[in-house]
């Protein structure tokens, strides 16, 4: 049995992780620490067996108290400012939460876990493939030894946090692992990110804004595959090591957007009553969802291509993604259609 502290557990990936963990390890204790920023949502944890503590990861004393009071042995760190576009508008929150916040957690873990008792512990840090910078079309995919070259304030702040995690292992002996993953998608994702934004825009007949030429390439990872990857890191990852976790679906944005359009059209053909629920959708009027596509000015400093080489995770963790992109996207769309109560209040906020 393990006692977990999950930071950012009311967010997209953290929330999915809590549900995943409950299902796979029903006897474990799960405590969530989340500041409930715009991206955190109590209802994401509906039905979860977890105690939600509303608080800030930068509150080191609070974190120390949680580690002690709940005899936490495993800290899984998701909490972050996570949206690249927001980091371009205002980098400060990214420095505060992603760098200072991670340092605060590490300090607390060091104080409590390394206080002479030598208790077995694990600090697992969730990071991104964006720390490696941008690839050309023929460059080899990112491996764990690719030099860091972050290009956005978001990825720079994540890179700094990765280095701090590494340093606490090498300097103080904290048992840490880090996973660098690709773009996640799935249930409970805040509708400012590409896939839920485009799904909801398509349902409401709003334009689908495509950055630049739409040919930026990303690897897409279903969030449940990601959770399996994290579980494998916790079970088999070697202290001090980093692991790349990918979805095996390297795609240009345009292909992702075309798949979304096709899946929305398909849902309207297959699911009764959608035209009445979403009368502004082109699909409700017999038109193609792709008619909503529109090109907008590219994101500043937009990285061209990310790709993940997950040879190490396959070899050491026996990790491999299980969900194909089309299947995962279809399930995600159907989840949003079935869970309007979850997204409706959030979508109203970002229009
Ligand atoms: P998210 O924005 O959906 O959720 C972040 C959560 O952290 C929210 O619940 C928020 O309330 C909480 N939080 C923010 N600041 C906090 C603070 N100071 N104290 C406590 N809680 C705070 O993010 P996500 O998409 O779930 O991403 C989770 C992690 O995975 C992040 O570290 C992110 O960098 C990383 N990541 C995400 C992706 C992706 O595709 N979403 C890809 C690679 C890596």
UniProtKB/TrEMBL annotation:
Transmembrane segments: none annotated. The lineage of its organism: Bacteria, Pseudomonadati, Pseudomonadota, Alphaproteobacteria, Sphingomonadales. It holds the Pfam family GDP_Man_Dehyd. It is an enzyme of class 4 (lyase). Its cofactor is NAD(+). It comes from Erythrobacter neustonensis. PROSITE patterns: ADH_SHORT. Belongs to the NAD(P)-dependent epimerase/dehydratase family. dTDP-glucose dehydratase subfamily. The keyword Lyase applies. This is dTDP-glucose 4,6-dehydratase. One of its GO terms (biological process) is nucleotide-sugar metabolic process. Residues 5-332 form the NAD(P)-binding domain. It catalyses: dTDP-alpha-D-glucose = dTDP-4-dehydro-6-deoxy-alpha-D-glucose + H2O. Keywords: Lyase, NAD. One of its GO terms (molecular function) is dTDP-glucose 4,6-dehydratase activity. Its EC number is 4.2.1.46. Signal peptide: none annotated. Gene3D superfamilies: NAD(P)-binding Rossmann-like Domain, UDP-galactose 4-epimerase, domain 1. The keyword Electron transport does not apply.
